[in-house]
Amino acid sequence: MKSAFLASAIVVAGLVGTAQASIIIQPTGATSPTEWVAANRLAVDAVNGNGLSSPLVTGDAVPATYPTHNTNAGDMFQTSVDLVQTPGQTITFTLDQAYNITGIHMWNYNENGGSGPLPGRGVEVLDVAFSSDGGTTFGAETRFDNLPAASAAATDAGFDLNYVANNVNAVRFTLIEGISDNRFVGIAEVRFIGTVVPEPASLGLLAIGAMQVLPRSRRTSR
Ligand SMILES: [Ca+2]
Ligand SMILES: [Ca+2]
Q: Is residue 208 in a domain?
């Protein structure tokens, strides 16, 4: 009898888990050892909403149409170090808790200022790895190639990357190649898409809840 209750509880907990809708995840921080500090093109400019036409924060529903990113270089992340001379530069995103990631939405580098349009400074080849321990260790890299350039207009809505990973609380991007400028590569903004990983405590509560509900429903069905 007891094991039957337990099996039902696990099924209920499983159903609750799969019923969660994916949400937007705005990283709580971003760091890059080579962010361009002097030009104010910081790693955090890729996560704090600077340059977006409207905020997109953790818990928001995944929008049918994404906000657009402007063309101000100071609202984007850009590396200050020549990527050809110093390959393997990174930007690492930290999340507020563990998520099961189901996708990435990214706005590529979108500068269009005094020097004219510079979408060639966007990322074309990107390696993505995730961490479950807050960024101490990372798993295997997933490579994305042929990423599209931004429009170099303030109407750029970014693009989606298919990336699935469970129990993620930090994500590292390694810049491999720029689109046409392989030197000072950048990213305008990044959001992740996914679901909160249920904590063991809440799974336990669900199991207790299921055990309490079950006997009652059995009685009523008789
Ligand atoms: Ca930005
Ligand atoms: Ca800035």
A: no
C-alpha of residue 78 to centroid of ligand 1, in Å: 10
Distance of CA 112 from the midpoint of ligand 2 (Å): 15
69 Cα–ligand 2 center, Å? 13
* Ligand 2 centroid distance, CA of 83 (Å): 20
pTM here is: 0.83
One digit per residue, pLDDT tens: the chain, 222 residues?
455 555 555 555 555 555 689 999 999 999 999 999 999 999 999 999 999 999 999 999 999 999 999 999 999 999 999 999 999 999 999 999 999 999 999 999 999 999 899 999 999 999 999 999 999 999 999 999 999 999 999 999 999 999 999 999 999 999 999 999 888 999 999 999 999 998 776 666 666 666 665 555 555 544
Which residues of 50-140 form beta strands (DSSP E)?
77-78, 89-108, 112-113, 116-117, 123-131
Residue numbers of the domain that contains 54:
22-199
